[in-house]
Amino acid sequence: MNKSFQILVQSYRISIGIELIQFIENSIGSAFLVYERSTDIDDVILNTLGGAIGVYIYLLFNHFIGKGQSARLKISN
Q: Can you give the pTM of this predicted structure?
């Protein structure tokens, strides 16, 4: 599997995990009327999109800046 794809999957999993924690906190917190947080699928989509943009920017910088230099971190195969 491509490493850039693995990074996107990890950003998706982390985003889902955060939203799940917010949902659980909201369920527990609303039972005690402590606070209310929103759980939204838009956050998951935008966080995953942000991960994709971050990988693209890294690859772009690595392509232009990394020429002639040894790259410390290789994402693409």
A: 0.67
